Task: inverse folding
């Protein structure tokens, strides 16, 4: 009986050891399998670094930039140089005013408004030349000739084209606009478009010192600013 009890005890002890070993081995394999199923996250050497708050929560406000992002862009606002002409530096500038005689009841007040503005901004009378031409169609040719002379800092072009019963208005208005533009481009001197293109005479008079102001005065201010811009910033 003692021998049988000893043998039984030994057998139970060995069975317990084998069972424990088997369970341990299976648990290890299960953990290994579970870990193998978990997705692995690869980190790129250029990925953002995220700082964590003391509570171990990611804070997107603390994302650090990569080296490439730290490079300054050539379009940063602080690198842009802005220039403009000045209305307070008109002394010494020379201007020419080309005035169309046609519709003189409108063009003369426009010219007077321009002259008054030049005087207010300290442009001397001896530095202003007024050249009369038959109509607005002829303004561009004369303005280009004056610009190429090299005597003036800006050319002010004044005229008035009022719509009538025919298409003559369209031809003259378009030719005047393109003529003044070409004069400035070909001469390299600012040529200011001060030609009124109106539907009727009332519109023209209202813009020549009437309730809509004086467009000749406004054109003179543009001439001063453009002359200053070219002289101080765009001069060859």
Result:
């Amino acid at each position: 009986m003692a021998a049988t009890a000893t043998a039984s005890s030994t057998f139970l002890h060995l069975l317990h050891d084998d069972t424990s070993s088997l369970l341990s081995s299976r648990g290890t394999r299960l953990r290994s399998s579970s870990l193998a199923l978990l997705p692995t996250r690869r980190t790129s050497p250029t990925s953002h670094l995220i700082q964590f708050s003391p509570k171990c929560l990611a804070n997107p406000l603390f994302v650090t930039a990569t080296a490439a992002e730290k490079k300054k862009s050539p379009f940063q606002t602080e690198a842009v140089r802005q220039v403009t002409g000045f209305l307070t530096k008109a002394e010494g500038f020379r201007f020419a005013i080309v005035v169309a005689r046609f519709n003189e009841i409108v063009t003369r007040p426009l010219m007077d408004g321009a002259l008054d503005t030049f005087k207010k901004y300290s442009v001397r009378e001896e530095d202003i030349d007024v050249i009369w031409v038959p109509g607005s169609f002829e303004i561009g040719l004369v303005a280009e000739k004056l610009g190429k002379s090299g005597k003036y800092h800006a050319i002010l072009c004044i005229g008035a084209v009022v719509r009538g019963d025919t298409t003559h208005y369209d031809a003259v208005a378009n030719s005047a606009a393109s003529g003044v533009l070409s004069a400035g481009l070909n001469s390299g001197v600012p040529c200011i478009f001060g030609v009124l293109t109106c539907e009727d005479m009332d519109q023209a008079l209202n813009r020549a010192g009437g309730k809509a102001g004086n467009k000749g005065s406004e054109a003179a201010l543009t001439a001063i600013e453009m002359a200053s811009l070219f002289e101080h910033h765009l001069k060859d």
